[in-house]
Fold each of these.
Amino acid sequence: MMDLKLLFFSVIFLCTSQLFAREKSAPKPNQRKDVALVTNKEELLFNNRVFMEAKKPKKKVVTATDYDIPDDLDQDSGGAQKRDEELPTCLLCVCLTGSVYCEEVTPDMTTVPALPKETAYLYARYNKITRITNKDFADIATLRRIDLTGNLISDIEDGAFSKLDNLEELTLAQNRLSKLPMLPAKLTAFNAGFNLLKTKGLKATAFKKLTKLAYLYLSNNEIEAIPQLPESLRIVHLQNNNISSMTDETFCKGNNTHYIRYNLEEIRLENNPVDLAKYPQSFICLRSLPFGLY
Ligand SMILES: *[C@@H]1O[C@H](CO)[C@@H](O)[C@H](O)[C@H]1NC(C)=O
Ligand SMILES: *[C@@H]1O[C@H](CO)[C@@H](O)[C@H](O)[C@H]1NC(C)=O
């Protein structure tokens, strides 16, 4: 705000001084050009500032030794205990109220970092995390979104997410998962595209139980059968898998021709072995046909 005021006054000053200058002496032909030039420069500066403010804060890159809390910080009295908990993660990552951004962290991040209390949004994309344990999120019931895209995760302990009662969006895309852990009940969006999932790695009712799930992304895996889908689902992506068949019950209710599945608006099944033309009865409850091979 201060800078804006300053800018405003300097522009006014420039304009008036130019005006005086022009009144005093006879206007020279190139003076008008000068005013335009100066104004443009100011404008440029102003635009640049606004642009820079809109950008995300840059993360700090620190060396491995900084992972430990420096001694001089321990001497700081006010809220020292809080600092003890939060500093290591918030040195490597950017912590803003409720959000933690740990993207492409150097040195390599191979485990989930200790999170500040009350964290609601965690973005830990493009790191080298290999494993998620039951302890990683145990104390952070406030989490609403976790994004672990582009790590090396091949193993997730079964209870790692199951008790996160506020978790709405979970993204595990681009990892090395061959099976999924238990998913928390309030999920609305789940993404495990680009993994190594097979049908035997999915619990039969893993998704059906999630009564708020609206977006399910499982493309680019090795899934052989369409999983049971909850009534709340709006979009399901299963392209680039190994699905070779389906039944009249997959999307619809085979014995009830009056049933209409209102919520489900997009089904993607391209690049699967299944020939959808063989299952005309499977789509009668849908408002639009799945994308795929006919
Ligand atoms: C796809 O499924 C078939 C059996 O239906 C199996 O023989 C084949 O190995 C699977 N391919 C992949 C890439 O998993
Ligand atoms: C329709 O099928 C469902 C299971 O798919 C079953 O519970 C129900 O009893 C069947 N209804 C009739 C009228 O056959």
Amino acid sequence: MYRSFSFLSYLLCLSFFSLIHNTGAWENNTYEYIVIGSGPGGGPVAANLARAGHSVLLLEAGDDQTQNVNVSLWYNFNLAGNDPATRWDFFVKHSDDPERESRYLRMTWRNKDGSFYVGTDPPAGAEQLGIYYPRAGTLGGCAMHNGCLTMNPNDADWDDIAKMTGDSSWTAENMRKYLINLERVHYLPNGTEGHGYTGWLDMTMLDSGLETNPDSKLFLQQAALASGASVDDLPELTMRDMNGDQPNRDQLTGIFGGVSHIAPNQNRSSPGYYVRNTVNENKYPLTLQLDTLATKIIFSNDTTKPKAIGVEFLQGKSMYSADPRFNASEKGTPGRAFASKEVIISGGAFNSPQLLKLSGIGPAEELKKFNIPVVVDLPGVGHRLADNYEAGILSLASRAIAGASEIFPVFLKTSVAKIRDIYMWCGSFSFEGFWPGFPESYGPSQYECAIVHMNPRSQAGAVTLRSADPRDVPDVNLNFFKTGESQDLQAILEAVKWVRGFVSKVGGGLGPFKEKHPCPYPKGNCTDEEQKKYIKEQAYSHHASSTCAIGADGDEMAVLDSKFRVRGVKGLRVVDASSFPAVPGGFPVLPTMMLSEKATEEILNELEEAGGVVRH
Ligand SMILES: Cc1cc2nc3c(=O)[nH]c(=O)nc-3n(C[C@H](O)[C@H](O)[C@H](O)COP(=O)(O)OP(=O)(O)OC[C@H]3O[C@@H](n4cnc5c(N)ncnc54)[C@H](O)[C@@H]3O)c2cc1C
Ligand SMILES: *[C@@H]1O[C@H](CO)[C@@H](O)[C@H](O)[C@H]1NC(C)=O
Ligand SMILES: *[C@@H]1O[C@H](CO)[C@@H](O)[C@H](O)[C@H]1NC(C)=O
Ligand SMILES: *[C@@H]1O[C@H](CO)[C@@H](O)[C@H](O)[C@H]1NC(C)=O
Ligand SMILES: *[C@@H]1O[C@H](CO)[C@@H](O)[C@H](O)[C@H]1NC(C)=O
Ligand SMILES: *[C@@H]1O[C@H](CO)[C@@H](O)[C@H](O)[C@H]1NC(C)=O
Ligand SMILES: *[C@@H]1O[C@H](CO)[C@@H](O)[C@H](O)[C@H]1NC(C)=O
Ligand SMILES: *[C@@H]1O[C@H](CO)[C@@H](O)[C@H](O)[C@H]1NC(C)=O
């Protein structure tokens, strides 16, 4: 039945192209493509396919908050991160060890009255929820409340995918064209080689404060000296392009300019706006269906392999229980939509594997536990979860630090790494991870370098089902430091010491600094072991990836092939942060958008090839 249905759609497509073009939808809710999730993975591919003339249904669980000033003015990102209009609350584990978990200083609990308690001394009767992990369930996904920092990963991260899969389209050299496609760079003279100036993503550079804030300059000068540069190099270093194609890129360390997905007028630029603008232009066959939680992929059984032909969903506000406004009594309206060509899953690193499993694609043992009929036994789904380890060295200066929003990024290469392995950004702020109500302000004398460990050596995390209810959240255990612990902790400790060293030399009445952590004042003489213990137990993260990983043929844990196709079925891809075989660089949002551009090209290429077959 479904086969003839899609054949009919095909005929309709041939005969009534202009009709389809105008209405966007066919009879019985059929589109060429259905994309699930409008974040950095799903948003661009959905808009791009529609702009290429294909009918696309984009399902998004959240609603449109593009006009909410928490979201649209980028510097409100902490307000946006806490805004119930956009946020999805996940509570995760960092390990299997309850003792270690209980020492996490920002452990979150649910009080009897429903409110949150954050800390290590909960009131009687409070229920331990876990470590808060922020996500955004809204048009545009987490790029609507993130910090907007962008980083094209080290070249090796891309080249490794090419090597692993034998697909040379993944080389860093080739991936640059997707960066060029999407970006609209404002921080370089228009036309400068290696970048794009006409794409949909505005890219500006944050103000380091070098010329505008004497206090920022004092920190910059010491950081420059500590990284082996001279203070005379600062005008150049603070504008240095971290997304450039400099030769020997992976070995470049020291101060860079903070490239961000922000428009020159300070408005956030992101996939959410790209999708919204594509819909508003009213000339592309893009149907955006908000407040719609995809609950299951529909497969046809009449081909040699199961083929994804549609999606079941629930329509209604706040259908997913991570939404703080969730109400279990509001059941929503079930519905279905069909795809004549493909279904693309882009729900993010927690939701894409959950949806695959709910649809019968995942480890057979786990699916059977929940009576989910197995479509494909794919043991890798939900595994290989990894994340950048993050830590910060936070201190209080002896007086207020002028300004507030100026930051500068720094790359380091530690003694345990072959290429640069630490990315950090420094400024007068406090960032100690996430909990309901984050962050904590320590006043105008606070100073932090937030440290991101790139290329974590452990990839042992997992997203597993808690139930077969699509409204339920899955269990997430990041399993930090399962392998490579001593090297990864060593790397972070070296970064902490590097920061401590340069900050202690800052003059202008700002010192002496009182460190909050990892070595709290007045001790000032913590052992390496004490600091590593603190870093290990208090590390946090928000760049989850790799739960539906691309992998080589023959790798039984590979979920996708190098073209994002889910192994063992037809017509189904996963395009989002879960597709990466390993954590990309220090910041995932830009590489995820680059994946989305790449997926667009793969899909259109395949269509052309298939079209060729039909024409013969
Ligand atoms: C607070 C915070 C700050 C961050 N800061 C930065 C930063 O400065 N720089 C950086 O590079 N990265 C940052 N990140 C990470 C970055 O935003 C994410 O890695 C990126 O958004 C991942 O994109 P994605 O498309 O994989 O998933 P997501 O962004 O999570 O998007 C998934 C979308 O799918 C929707 N969805 C999920 N399941 C379903 C379903 N079943 N049906 C329908 N819709 C569904 C969700 O509502 C969501 O809109 C930050 C993340 C957070 C949370
Ligand atoms: C569309 O749905 C209607 C009602 O469910 C059904 O009668 C009709 O056959 C369907 N059309 C196609 C092309 O499947
Ligand atoms: C920038 O954001 C503000 C606040 O939401 C909005 O009013 C304005 O229209 C936006 N500007 C542009 C150019 O999109
Ligand atoms: C912005 O978010 C905060 C929570 O962080 C919320 O209290 C406030 O109402 C939101 N503002 C708007 C304009 O929605
Ligand atoms: C760069 O120049 C092109 C061609 O004139 C123009 O279309 C584009 O808008 C410019 N981009 C920026 C960021 O100014
Ligand atoms: C395909 O088979 C599965 C498992 O037997 C079944 O649940 C599903 O409904 C079938 N799909 C269709 C479209 O008939
Ligand atoms: C939840 O939804 C039910 C049914 O609509 C409603 O009666 C109830 O008041 C809602 N609960 C809350 C807390 O809003
Ligand atoms: C570390 O510092 C504390 C507080 O200043 C001091 O009491 C202690 O003796 C010092 N320990 C060592 C080993 O130097």
